[in-house]
């Protein structure tokens, strides 16, 4: 297994130790900057959190995460496959897991690897994940927002507030 994000481990622990009934599942919508090392300034973080809470008023929580190191934000049970961004062939999960282990030292380094299919140099963040996953130091998330997909217009609004393009991750646990 690749290193698990701390946030996901916490969520599992909270689910086991908390009041949630076995077999119930949770969903998160997580927004991360397209540049994994980018952290918006504090005022923009607070504005974006406030706006996301208005967009998702029924969510259990809307939170900001700022990590010291680049962490991996996964899509949990929504994971289907990984594709090469160059030739679109499917990347073997085992190959990806080994690169995840290799790349992680002080957080994820996001060094370049050559893809097994067409030997194109890519970072783990360049791969096409279905559903989307990604790497970041900053994330804005809503737990159980009680709607399926984030409307494109809201995504663009949050991008304007945060001053960065965003990747949307739908995590199902
Ligand atoms: Zn390829």
General description of the model:
28% of the residues lie in helices and 29% in strands. With 173 residues, the protein is of the alpha+beta class. It has two domains: 27-76 and 133-173, Alpha-Beta Plaits, CATH 3.30.70; 80-130, no CATH class. It has a four-stranded antiparallel beta sheet.
Structural class: alpha+beta
Question: What's the CATH C level of the largest domain?
Answer: Alpha Beta
- Average per-residue pLDDT, rounded, comes to 90
- Encode the helix/strand succession as letters: HEHEEHEEEEEEHE
Q: Please state the CA-atom Rg, rounded to the nearest Å.
A: 16 Å
Shape: globular
CATH architecture of the largest domain: 2-Layer Sandwich
Q: What are the distinct ligands in this entry?
A: zinc ion
Total number of β-strand segments? 10
Strand order in the largest sheet = 2-9-1-10
Distance between the termini: 16 Å
- Tally of discrete structural domains: 2
Query: Can you tell me the residue ranges where pLDDT is under 50 for at least 5 consecutive residues?
Result: 1-20
Largest sheet: 4 strands, antiparallel
Helix content: 25-40%
Put simply, the count of helices is: 4
